[in-house]
Each structure stands twice: as structure tokens, then as C-alpha cells.
Write a structure and sequence with these properties.
The complex is a heterodimer of chains A (312) and B (69). With 312 residues, chain A is mainly β. In chain A, 13% of the residues lie in helices and 41% in strands. The chains are: A mainly beta (312), B mainly alpha (69). Chains A and B meet through strand 19 of A and strand 2 of B.
């Protein structure tokens, strides 16, 4: 009997009924969270944990950003490289490097934010057509995104001959993530579950009278002079002190009242006069909405504010 | 507490007197009566119970209770 290492280096190759294969790429999510066994104990617990990451404020370490639903895909995997011996024996020199070019529908506003990922190496979770979320299992037994280099090509103008889309190319950094490290969690996600947030820019609707400020929120568009006023939709809901945050640096300033201000299409935010008076002239005061999770709990969905800084 | 689409910070109101509260929040255009109503909803009046007067029942000691038939 020859000496063999096969028993040590191999792995059992027995088949298993209903073993899962990767489906079509359905949606890409970018972010650094690491999900623990508690998070993925059940599909429901993982879905809740994942969606919670979507609703984190920008800047949060674990925030997840989702890209639009994929409309088409081209396999851009770099083929493995082989060399031949003198007698024709094929020897593998380099492993294949997985890569995919996906097409998404994105308006000009969304493209502005997608392009920010161009040239970046980011952790990516992939939702496939079987509703499995693919990533990797790390040495701690946790589930996280796989590292990809991202390229984003904008759509441009139509040419009347070809369907045009924004193209996003993802190239896997470590080929082992395709097989050896690959892991997935089964979900019941619908495409409407994985929706990103929209920026609501805070602005001053009218000049303040000492501690009484007039504040509004609007969603900017690329149409010159056109914006969506958040007040049109959430006038009553945002007349709530719990949904606004006013700070001097990192120190909150007490809000004594918030009132709907239909005259200025915004809200009147009154600050504690004693605290306000104590602030030196020139103090920077930041006005913003509460965190997306708090807004979501108040049925104000999909919004995250871009605060305004005003000078006393 | 929300009154006429104005959300008042209850914790802050509870630290103020009625005159202070009115002076601070009068810019919302509520009448003094409305302001007082808001204040009293947030800071309810506390009624102090008057002590019960001492009843001298020494004349009843040693006598049986009398019942009406």
C-alpha cells in the first residue's frame, strides 16, 4: 500500500438531498456588520437584524446600504490560468477570480450615491433569487459580507437602440470566499424589504427669534429649483419634540416645544431660554431629526436627516 | 403633551411655574387660558386634605351601642 495523504487533505464528497446552489444575483447590500449565531438562529431573527442595519444612521460602523434590484448580470469571472508541461499535462497556475457585472435601474440622484462606491473595496452581502443572503463564515463562526472591489459605471443618455442601465461590477478580493468561506442565511425577504434611506436636508425656513427657531426639511433633487418638502407629508408627525435633536457640539439643548409651522412649511422649535442664553454668541447649534430607527418607529420611514449647523 | 399641534416637553414644563411657562411659550399664539389649561394638564393641582377634627367621644365610654330598630 502506497503512503498517502489523501485521507488527511481531502473532504467527504457525499451528496446531500436538497443541497443549495447559488441562484441569480438579485440584490447587493454593502456593509460591515458581523452577525452572530444569535442573529441567524432563525430566518426571522436574521431578517430583523439585517433590516435594523439598513436603518442605522449614516456613519454607524455597522450600517448597511442596499443597491437597487438587479435587472441583469454578466459573469465577469477571470478564468483560471493553466500551463502545460512539455507532454501536455495541464497544470493550474492561477485560480479563477469571481466577478460579476450587474445592471440596475437608477435615477440621477441614486447614481450620485452609487458612484461613491466606485473603486472601493467593501464587504458585500448578496441576496439571490432563492432569497438566500450570501456572505462568508469567519473563524469566529459569525456571518459577514465578502470583500469585493466595486466599479460603478453611470447610465448616461439613451441611444434609442439599446436598453441602458447603471452598471456595477463587483470583483471578489479573495477567491476562497466563493467556495471555502462561503455561507448563506435563508430568508423570506421581498425586494420592498431591502430599501435604503433618503436624505432629508434640514434648513432654516425663517430667521430665528432668540431661542425660537423655524426649521424645515426637504429632499433635494437634480431638477434645478425642485425639492420635495418633508412638511407636505409629515407636518403633524414631525411636530414632536422626540423626533428632533438640537445640540451644541455633542451636548443636547433642551427642546421645550415643537409646533407645526404651516406658514413657513416647517416647524417651530423652541429651545430652553436659560440654556440658550448661556451659549456664547457664535456658538454652533446643530438641528437634525432623530435617528432613522426612531423616525421609523414613528411611521416616518426611509428618511435620514442631513443636519444644519446654525450660528447663534 | 400635544395641544393644538404643539408638542410641549412635559419634563421641562414640570420645572416651571405657570407665569414662566406662559412667558416662555406665548409665541405659539395660544391664549392665556389655553396656556393655563396646558399647564394644568401637565402639572395637575394637588389638593391637600384637611385634617379631620378631633371628636370628643369620652361621653360614650362604658355605654352600649344604640341601634335603631
Amino acid at each position: 500500500m502506497s503512503i498517502s495523504l489523501c485521507g488527511l487533505i481531502g473532504g467527504n464528497t457525499g451528496g446531500m438531498d436538497c443541497d443549495v446552489q447559488k441562484g441569480l444575483l438579485q440584490q447587493i447590500a454593502v456593509g460591515s456588520p458581523e452577525f452572530t449565531p444569535t442573529d441567524f438562529a432563525t430566518s426571522a431573527s436574521f431578517q430583523a437584524a439585517f433590516i435594523a442595519k439598513l436603518k442605522l444612521a449614516t456613519g454607524a460602523n455597522d450600517k448597511v446600504f442596499v443597491f437597487p434590484v438587479i435587472q441583469g448580470v454578466a459573469d465577469k469571472t477571470t478564468a483560471a490560468k493553466f500551463g502545460n508541461s512539455g507532454y501536455g499535462l495541464q497544470v493550474k497556475l492561477l485560480r479563477s477570480k469571481p466577478g460579476y457585472e450587474v445592471e440596475v435601474l437608477a435615477g440621477t440622484l441614486m447614481e450620485k450615491n452609487l458612484v461613491k462606491y466606485d473603486g472601493k473595496i467593501v464587504p458585500i452581502f448578496i441576496l439571490d433569487s432563492s432569497n438566500n443572503v450570501w456572505g462568508v463564515r469567519n473563524s469566529a463562526g459569525n456571518f459577514k459580507g465578502s470583500q469585493y472591489l466595486v466599479s460603478v459605471e453611470p447610465r448616461g443618455f439613451g441611444d434609442g437602440a439599446n436598453a441602458k442601465f447603471t452598471k456595477i461590477t463587483i470583483s471578489m478580493v479573495d477567491s476562497r470566499d466563493e467556495v471555502e468561506n462561503a455561507a448563506f442565511v435563508s430568508t423570506n425577504f421581498a425586494s420592498s424589504d431591502l430599501v435604503g434611506l433618503v436624505n432629508a436636508n434640514i434648513y432654516q425656513t425663517a430667521v430665528n427669534t432668540t431661542n425660537v427657531y423655524h426649521i424645515g426639511a426637504k429632499i433635494l433633487t437634480d431638477a434645478m429649483g425642485v425639492s420635495l418638502n418633508v412638511h407636505d407629508r409629515y407636518a403633524a408627525l414631525l411636530a414632536s419634540g422626540a423626533l428632533w435633536v438640537v445640540k451644541n457640539g455633542v451636548t443636547p439643548i433642551t427642546i421645550t416645544s415643537v409646533a407645526d409651522d404651516p406658514t413657513n412649511n416647517g416647524w417651530t422649535i423652541t429651545l430652553d431660554a436659560t440654556a440658550y442664553t448661556a451659549l456664547a454668541v457664535g456658538t454652533l447649534i446643530t438641528f437634525g431629526l432623530a435617528a432613522p430607527t426612531a423616525l421609523d418607529a414613528a411611521n416616518i420611514t426611509q428618511l435620514e436627516s442631513v443636519p444644519i449647523v446654525l450660528t447663534k | 403633551m400635544i395641544f393644538n399641534r404643539i408638542d410641549f416637553n412635559e419634563d421641562w414644563v414640570k420645572t416651571k411655574t405657570l407665569p414662566d411657562f406662559i412667558a416662555h411659550e406665548k409665541h405659539h399664539g395660544l391664549s392665556d387660558e389655553q396656556m393655563k389649561e396646558v399647564f394644568e394638564l401637565i402639572v395637575p393641582k394637588v389638593e391637600i386634605e384637611k385634617p379631620i377634627k378631633n371628636v370628643d367621644d369620652s361621653s360614650l365610654i362604658g355605654k352600649d351601642a344604640e341601634f335603631e330598630h
